[in-house]
Amino acid sequence: MRLFREEKEQKYTRTFHAEREFHPEHVHVNVYEIDRLYGGPEEGGWYYNTGRPVESVRVKNCMKEVERVRQSLEAKYPTTGTVYSVLASKRKDVFEVMVEDGFGEEWPKERPHYE
Would you say residue 6 lies in a domain? Predict the structure, then answer.
């Protein structure tokens, strides 16, 4: 007779979009193309980051599956630049992979205001 050890996998419980219905049995691994935009002249000028969804993969909410998909997407969308460079040629191909409760959406929804 074989005995099997029951293994419980850890689950991601991070929620970014509180306004949406949360389905704990599934999460989305979203890839965003990151850019940096000029916010305004206040305090010598300020900038803010934006994210445009590129790909979204729905996966079972277990650490092994999420990590497998996250690593696969990071390999598919390697970051080769930086949003912090003033050189336009270095500001392309900046991606970020995030584990979220729903499909990727552009952020921020509204242009931020300096206060």
Answer: no
Buried b / exposed e along 23-43 (16+ C-beta atoms within 10 A): eeeebbbbbbbbeeeeeeeee
The answer to whether residue 58 is domain-embedded is: yes
In a 3-state reduction of DSSP, which class is residue 54? strand
Which of 85, 60, 86, 73 shows the shortest CA–CA distance to 33?
73
The answer to whether residues 107 and 51 touch, using CB atoms and an 8 Å cutoff, is yes
Within-domain flag for 87: yes
Closest CA to 98 of 40, 33, 39: 33
pLDDT digits (tens, 9 = 90+) for 7-25: 334 444 343 444 445 557 8
pLDDT tens-place string over residues 59-105: 999 989 999 999 999 999 998 888 887 776 666 789 999 999 999 99
State which residues form the domain around 50.
26-100
